[in-house]
Amino acid sequence: MTTSACGCGGLHTDPRLPELEAVLSEFKGNRGALIQVLHKVQSIFGYLSDEVQERVAEALDVPLSEVYGVATFYSLFSLKPQGQYKIGVCLGTACYVRGAQQVLNEIEKQLGIKLNDTSDDGKFTLEVTRCIGACGLAPVMTINEDVYGRVEVGTIAEILKKY
Amino acid sequence: MRFIRSHILICSGSNCQLRGSLSIMHALEAELIKKGLYQEIRIVETGCLGLCEKGPGMVVYPEGVMYTRVTLADIPEIVEEHLLKGRFVRRLMTQPADGEDKLTPLNMSPFFIKQKRVVLKNCGLINPESIEEYIAAGGYQSLAMALDQYSPDQVIQIVKDSNLRGRGGAGFPTGRKWDFTRRAEGTEKYLICNADEGEPGTFKDRLIIEGDPHLVLEGMSLAAYAIGADKGIIYVRGEYDLSIKRLEQAIRQARESGLLGRNILGSEFSFDIDVCLGAGAYVCGEETALIESIEGKRGEPRLKPPYPAQAGLWGKPTSVNNVETLANIPSIIEHGAEWFRSIGTATSSGTKVFTLTGNVVNAGLIEVPMGITLREVIMEIGGGIPGGRQFKMAQTGGTSGGCLAEEHLDVPMDYESLSQYGSSLGSGALLIMDDSHCIVDLTKCFLRFFVHESCGQCTPCREGTAQLYNIVDKISKGRAAGSDIDLIEKLSRTMQISPLCALGQTAPIPVLSAFQYFGPEVRAHLRGTCPAGICNMKGALANADS
Description:
The structure holds two protein chains of two kinds. Helices cover 40% and strands 11% of the residues of chain A. By secondary structure, chain A is an alpha+beta fold. Chain A folds into two domains: 11-73, Arc Repressor Mutant, subunit A, CATH 1.10.10; 85-161, 3-Layer(aba) Sandwich (Glutaredoxin). The longest helix of chain A has 12 residues, at 34-45. Chain A is elongated, with a radius of gyration of 18 Å. Chain B is of the alpha/beta class. Chain B folds into four domains: 6-108, 3-Layer(aba) Sandwich (Glutaredoxin); 131-341, 3-Layer(aba) Sandwich (Rossmann fold), CATH 3.40.50.11540; 351-434, Ubiquitin-like (UB roll) (Roll), CATH 3.10.20; 439-526, de novo design (two linked rop proteins), CATH 1.20.1440. Chain B is 40% helix and 14% strand. In chain B, a hairpin with a 5-residue loop joins strand 11 and strand 12. In chain B, helix 7 packs antiparallel against helix 8, helix 17 runs antiparallel to helix 18 and helix 19 (482-497) packs across helix 21 (508-517).
């Protein structure tokens, strides 16, 4: 285990460690807490590094394989560092029939990255998101917490400029 | 005391919030203060009004005028014209109005007249963040009535007699499910509310929760009383921020009012509810996968039997019910089984909430009696197909539902009729597509979803979805032969019977129905032509056997 969450020399020197430990002790002994713990831990670190997963496994007393199994099963968890802004384009059918594929193509073109890539400056990560239940506004894209509805190819440059 | 002459109801459902309904509300407030109207006009933040695609929406009472696609720039005009001078702002109105004062009442306008609101009865009328408003609208009366007058067995009997069936997709009779759970051995039992609404194009449960969270809590309490559970869990999608917030707030309010907790309303019945967040997996909508997920594990479906009613969460008897199913319960207890059966058809009782999406004028949230035809929903409530295009196809029940063509427009929307045509009510998604789309391209879109969401546990689903995708992909490139269509048919039949759960079993449904009802268009692809001009046929091979 060589890479650390902050890139400085291991989890034990990471300034976010106390926050992690607080979450782990809050949920220690709660059966079935793993998913809720991973939600909270990811919100601290932005993603679930190998080292963080090891610490979670140890603290909750579950096998690392189980932590890894859960972390890779659910789409909201990420094992890789994410760009500062995560762009999600919904390709659910309701969005698809309203032109979501063209929206995705246009973002790829403008940012010069492919789906599931992060831009070289670490600013944007481009992903397909699951249906977020805003189908009344299709096609929909998200950038971190912001949601954009009725997106048109012509307005994408303007949206991206805000970030 | 403030004398209120007008109420403005602003939709704060997620679709409208995303279009800025909250900033519009604040601007409206500021404008009313500026014009000195603040004391006489009250702004109410309410649940979904239904016309999501035209959001943000608001209704001004007592006139009942609905304004849609309201922007910040429209606020001064609405205040000046409507609220000060009493003249409607016609360009923002959806309902027909002849002359200055003759207005079609909102409930008589084309979007609402064929709707029947049972689950959505308070949605768009009360403030979902206020337990007082819910109680004032008759809320928690059914719970009080049941605790006072009915035994748990009587509650189950009423629900059985009402003929209510699950609204999450499978359509299992709710009363029977409760009966199994009640009669299962053990004293520790659980009630789970399934709010893991992952079916693409479905957002009804989200808007029910956001528009009337206490209705769901009351339905859960009644269900828990019936089956003998003292612990309830709402498993809600992690992406549904507003739903989570409203649920947590409603649970807090109910606890403070003694409507959750120990000895509810002075009875022997104790019940409390927790919210559990999903982490993004479609398969967790399947009840045993959902239970695995609550236990903190990978959401892989369990082998059945035993069913959750015998051995569910932590191995204890558990009833898993959909949000909309539970939201029907208070009305059934209040008005009785006979009343409920009088709505809908002989075999499919009650109403159904649909999310109408795709190429339709009034995309949004609707509630209609079972048995209404597709034509009425699309052409009347939905306002038809926009942009002068023609109707081509409707997919009912979400991505795992069947594709219906124009000849099916008069099929009644109920459990039995739709299944005759290889489709289902499913989750209540209703996706409308116009003639600019290609059936093969859409089928690929459906299958891409299943390939991604198959949990990988059982082979027929994991391999089957991928192989179906590959074959349809070949068709879309003009590189397939007639034998490939037979292969799809054969593979689909195998998949309908062999996977562990409904995900794999229903994945072939959209493919089979699309290929059955749009055969000539599919076959044209074998000859290297895409009639809609969507598929890229550059590498097409000419096939003799097509």
